Amino acid sequence: xxxxxxxxxxxxxxxxxxxxxxxxxxxxxxxxxxxxxxxxxxxxxxxxxxxxxxxxxxxxxxxxxxxxxxxxxxxxxxxxxxxxxxxxxxxxxxxxxxxxxxxxxxxxxxxxxxxxxxxxxxxxxxxxxxxxxxxxxxxxxxxxxxxxxxxxxxxxxxxxxxxxxxxxxxxxxxxxxxxxxxxxxxxxxxxxxxxxxxxxxxxxxxxxxxxxxxxxxxxxxxxxxxxxxxxxxxxxxxxxxxxxxxxxxxxxxxxxxxxxxxxxxx
Length: 266
Hints:
It is an enzyme of class 4 (lyase). The chain has helices spanning 73-78, 151-157, 161-165, 182-187, 212-220; strands spanning 2-8, 11-18, 30-35, 43-50, 55-56, 65-69, 88-92, 97-98, 104-106, 113-115, 117-123, 139-146, 149-150, 170-177, 190-195, 198-204, 230-232, 240-242, 247-252, 256-264. Strands 1, 2, 3, 4, 5, 6, 7, 8, 11, 12, 14 and 17 form a twelve-stranded mixed beta sheet that branches. A five-stranded mixed beta sheet has the order 9-20-19-15-16, with no helix packed on it.
């Protein structure tokens, strides 16, 4: 099931996405409005609205986004880094989250903004110290993410809070796909990023150094994960600059496409 969060006539709701359409074309897609929330038992209301008539929002409003650095060997190498012995984790604040179609605001304190296409894990239930065999039970589904990074600030400040945590630095969407599981991800899903239609990144989740199970186990050893929390699983090689006016799209096989435009901070 594809679960979207959206607004219509000033109201916010979740809905199940039905139908098939080409990327960027919502004309054949409709939303069956969910009665309740997707983190508990829910029913489909049978009330349907065309996707083209609503505004898609970030599929979740996470309490926290836990991101993982250097989880693809080729990406680590392209920035002159080794694959770490243990996962590098960092936070992106909830205020960094935006949805599909929302602008990425170029931060005034940077001159080198980069895209990073990533698979995002959406947690479905409160959990801590999750055993490997139970990981799939605590996952609601997966969505696309862009770990937008002020690369010059990251390199200069060493701590990544400002470089990766500024407002609009975490686009998520377009919806949550609940039909995937860690085994399918380990087998390999294509992760692609285009800028103004030009391919910049093309990798596979099979190249992740540490699997979804590894990451959920590692992170939940230290902290409680809440429904709607998001884990970013790292980016493949090919990261590069974004400029004001660019349109950046992250596409993940089996999920969909997340598109955002870069604007000047006003």
